[in-house]
Protein 1
Amino acid sequence: MKIEQLYTSCLAQGAYYIESNGEVAIIDPLRETQAYIDKANSNNAKIKYIFETHFHADFVSGHVDLAKNTGATIIYGPGAETTYEIHSAKDNEEFKLGNVTIKALHTPGHTLESTTYLLIDENGKHHAIFSGDTLFLGDVGRPDLAIKSDLTKEDLAAMLYDSLREKIMPLADDVIVYPAHGAGSACGKNLSKETVGTIGDQKKTNYALRADMTKAEFVKEVLDGIAPPPQYFAKNAMLNKTGYDTFETVLKTGNIPLSPEDFEAMANHEEALVLDVRPESEYIKGHIPNSIFIGLHGGFAPWVGALITDIKQPILLVVPEGKSEEAVTRLSRVGYDNTLGYLEGGIESWISAGNDIDTLESISAEEFADRVKQGGVNILDVRKDGEYSSMHLEDAQHFALDFINENMNEVSKEKTYHIHCAGGYRSVIAASILKARGFHNLVDIAGGFGAIKKTDLPTTDFVCPSTL
């Protein structure tokens, strides 16, 4: 028996490869699937099953393509309805894979069809669970993402409580836990950086598995502090239910080099968004006017999904040399399949063709501190709610990047804003969006709050309310 966790850090997502006696199961595959096929072929094995733990909201699964290319059966949990062929497992149904068995445990709560897969080894021992978004390390899945359901998030949270206590907590403490996500995913609140654990460890450390916890307490705690889901979640979940264009088609139509002339013409006639995925330092020095920055080196795909509201938006790319295929691939992972091509030769070719560029003023934290002391500085803190609440600059306006499209009326084109995040990535994203909307008096703070804290500017710290 062989188990491999195939973890994609930029999505905080874990897919799994299980092999026994020449047969393979893939759990929650990524959009691009050739790597799974190659791995099986190299081991002289055949992919038999594709297990989906639920209709994923934060990425587009590769299950449809993988089934077409291998003949494998797609398995979902009870009640799953799709427009393509699947096997909808019954609760406790078992599937033979070589010398091992995979048992479907219906665990609704995160979504109605959510299913945990229990791996039983050659000796009949419970070896591991692949828990999807039902159980994370340190947390559980958010219960507010059900599609077209009349159930409330409280109803789903109550179901999750029952699922955990009836299906997962009775398992032996040494059963390994393989979750679908780790820290950085928006599918939970406080996910661990670890990506593999055990049932026993989770019983000791995960707040949601406290033995003395009532259902009412669980519902209250699991729902407390959940931010609204990113806008692309429902769209990705629907793609996972209804299918999508093949990844090969998306890559063929999106990874096309374009001359500056063709690039500009397409931007004008196709109403395409110009997406600059280079490092922020390069975007700051020079970029195509009205282009949006979201760098490949950061949480690229989730930020695209959160901030580009039309999943069918035509996109033109400005990429570092040799990174066009990676950019198209990572866009496809969250369902943004309408890439039209990339600027051949990069920004240098754009400039050589006589086109204008724009820049963004960026200053050090020390220079920023000097300006603040002189007075009259408008500060935008674009970090998340929790980051801002824990510590922020006095007089800073909180303007979370996550909700920038909804809160544009909170800023004025007549003012000059100094923008910071934690380290410098998100502030440039925010500045690029504001610039594209006609806000031109913007200054980025290099190094973000991490650098600002090293100055002597006063901050406001979070003070825990007294329990006395």
Protein 2
Amino acid sequence: MRVNRNSRARTRAAVGLTVAALAAGATTGAGPAHARPETAPAAAAAPAAAYCGAAHRIEQKLSTGTTWRMCWRYDSKAGLVLENVSYQPKGETKPIKVLNSARLGQIHVPYDDGNIEYDDLTGFDFAQGLMNLAPGECPGGTIKTIKVPDSWNEDPNVKGLCTTTRSRGHAYRMQGDTANKVYQTQGKDLLVYTVNQVGWYEYMTEWRFQDDGAITMNVGATGSLSWDDYDAGDGRGWPIGKGAAAKATSHSHNAFWRLDFALDGSTKNSVEQYDSTVTPQATGQRAPTTKTTRTKITKELAGDSKNYRWWRVVSAAGKNKDGHARSYEIVPGPTTKYPGRRFTKHDLYVTQYNKCELFASNNPGNCGAGAGSSVDKWVNGQALNHPVVWMNIGFHHIARDEDQQPMPVHWQGFSIAPRDVTAMNPLTPAELGWQNGHWQPRS
């Protein structure tokens, strides 16, 4: 939590002095160019993910049989970028590509008093604030060294990328046909994360790759709680400490993610929106009826979550063993939508790919006359043949006494879940494999 630019600048300088200089390990190059394709110098382009070496490769086979593969690099503004992400559950003979790239698209932080707002990725050195991780922060895993581009530390090499595995509890549980048979398994995740300090805050950016094919992405804000000295009784802050001697300024965290899908290796994916309508119970019926309709999204979209609405990205190149097109469903997490800026007024944006459209706000690239520098201005009626998904998840932080000190992590994020990527649950026990589409053996 920050209260003014000067305090943030002082904190950033202090962090730069306290980060330990460590021996160089696996490093990465600079981030991608931010200019339009026709003006971007070839030397500034990001390295192709397909050619990442062992130092930049993450490959993990989970104990339940699923293997995740991806490449990583570190961008001078976005921080950690994951590329060429593929998923291979047991029973599949080759990896199934899911994403070209996945990364944060912005963390926008406006304060309730109207005096300040921050674009943490493009305006306040998010990437340069990468923190060293102690071994105990990555239990059972590996901490990789990142060479931070444009670092303001004497040594830009930071032990800042954790890859490890975690249990997430039951993946499923089912009582069998007899009382003495229970089918259950404990789900496993590949966890990839970094910690970046911006002012008072430390952002934990985590990616959870589940053995059932889902990907969950979260930002957790922790660190220190700061305070301001105006009257919190006006509804824009909250008293902390003894009496009303110290007040914390309320503010919002509007986190954006940018996902460039490439299902089955093709970027020519389609996007569909589903809406269901529940009608009252008719005479002679036992319950109300529900009808679900599909809308194909053929042009760029600024979308809003609502009851009984969801979206999916559909492969144009691959089908599962049942002959159904593979897809990933977008599953929003809890959110508080911030109405104060145009680019935060919608929950989801789908834009046609443009290599200079990299950040949801305060985008540093000049994307052409009239295009603007925020994601809302890029939704201008273009046809979608290479869709990029931007997800906006907001959190309104009204401080509490328990936020000090240190401040407990508060999480915000969302998931993408496989829909028809495999013909059955990828964790199905072998003895239940015959139950595809029916519940008893066919003669």
Protein 3
Amino acid sequence: MSDHHGAKMNFADDMSYGDYLGLDQLLNAQHPRSDAHDEMLFIVQHQTSELWMRLAIHELQNARLKIMENDLQPAFKMLTRVARIFEQLNNAWDVLRTMTPSEYTEFRPSLGNSSGFQSHQYRLIEYLLGNRQMALKKVHEHKPDALAALEDELALPSLYQVALTAIGADAGPPGQTAWAANDDVQARWQAIYENPKDNWELYQLAEKLVDLEDYFRRWRFNHVTTVERIIGFKRGTGGTSGVAYLRKMLEVELFPELWHVRGDL
């Protein structure tokens, strides 16, 4: 008889691993609509990405709260974690890129008009970080809970706005649209970078934000590359121009002054 080192073997009356994680629901949430082998890959990749985004939202919301409370050290840990989450999201593109254009075309009609463009969690992350494209809320009007989450977020200052308040800058009203580079803000960041010893926590805050955007930019770039590799320059299933739209998104700067200041140091 094998020795299982005292491990509990009967979970009829106790919580098990699968119970705690809700694995019955999770592992039965994949419903391919075609017979194509690669549709399972497509579904799992996007579902796991949404799970990682759920965690990113949790971390970003709490990091913002900590910055507002001037409790920066826990915020640094959370922002570091979000950067690593985007590293995981980046790695997921490597798996998806094992699918060829021929394999994708076998099930693409099954997607209908569904598209990652419609991910309310991704849009919430954009809003949290400060890229508040108000018109894009309309995509989520058919989902009242998703729309409410986005509207609740727009009533709050973005993560970058609370960081700007922490350095004594005018962050503008909470519900404003995408942040535009500001000379006064850049001057304040420059003063911090030029004297990190006397501004150590704010200096760390700056670098945590840059690190986060660095990983976020890599994720966007890999998204473009993956889409171009699989569908070329076809229109996206959600109606966007596909690669052309995604390339335009590469130009968006979330924390512009933190990048521009590097040329003046």
Protein 4
Amino acid sequence: MSVRVLTALVPHVEASVIERLEGAPGIELARRCADLADLRAAAAAALGDAALVSAALRGCDRGVIGELRRAGLRVVGLAADEAGERRLRQLGVSAVVWENAGTEELGQALAPADDESDASWIDAAGLDPALASARLGPDETDETSADGAEPHGAGSHGAGSRDAGSRGAGSRDDWPVDEAAAAPFASRGRLIAVWGPTGAPGRTTIAINVAAALAEAGSRVVLVDADTWGASVGQALSLLDEAPGVAAAARASEQGTLDLPALARLAPQVSPRLRVLTGLPRADRWPELRADAIEHVLDLTRSLADHVVVDCGFSIEDDEELSYDTSAPRRNVTTLAALAQASELVAVGSGDPVGLQRLVRAVQSVATIPSPRPHVVVTKVRAAAVGSDPHARIAEALLRFAGIEQVQFVGWDPDTLDAAMLAGRSVLEHAPGSALAAELRAVAAVVAPDTVTAPSRTGRRGLLRRR
């Protein structure tokens, strides 16, 4: 059975490549597409089995490559030089041939292999020394800062706020960019998704301090703010002058310029062994985070650190109307991608009647999508909201209505939280000896017991089991 091929090639090589392609055994030229729009339409109409795409084709990005794959096409890139090959591989194209390739080589590249794998971006980003040396150019970096950075001092917390320079990669940098880029690919880091229902239950607080606890224990950690509804990690850590790291990383991924060094440069170091990829400065910029790009960013980040902690948005709804249009952006795709890739999931709810009801429903909802079994954390635990002996009452309610047998509690200490926010630091960094810090370390110990040692406790707060 012949392979139907769609081509989208630059004009100066199209004629010669088509001539060689027509002579390849088992290859049928289904359509010569004039441009990218024509190629996408032909793919959507299922006119081909494979696509041959030039590296210099205008408008070709990671989203387009993903769209072609979802249409069932094997994508083969046509490169004129090493720069073109590098770009194609960083866009996720697994098979690349040169423009002067012979008839037999073209045919072999377009024919499907039995052991074919499209997870080639790892090879492109790290195993090829030429690709590992790639960097985002100064023009791209400057454009990112001008495009997304908040004005200097905007939204400052006060005297405790620090500018980008004091919290950037030059501060206490024992994890420089070059070392970050040399992270081992054989043992990719674990992704920990911190998620919970609407109502500000403390997802960001948990994410920041879990990341801080892992870094404190000696692991290299990247904290990613993937909340498209209300990103706040940058504000909480006084990174107000930083460019929106996750948006810049997604844009670089779309254009095929994102590798480990570029990702490390976009994620400034805020404390020893802890880097932060800040979120969107404005919620209306969520269309910049497309599915293929954000999946690549999260996947590549796992090669940069031992642990990746993702602060997720609350919504996991997959809009049915938009799901039929594969080219349309979806607002919740960042959360869904993080949950699907997660090694561990932390579900956060607040310790009051409304928050507990939302948590019960949220845990039931998250079980219907690809995600790990959640570690449940209840924050803001206080007797004033649920009555005497709040830990026992909350544990009993969660066991009864959601079947949750294991709960981690974090008490309500607004004074310590406010002081840490004013200083622009994690609770573990600002008040390491506080009871709240001990409870937050206990959460990290449950999520990553092989990395963080749980603090000793004498009371009932912390992990509580119901038998």
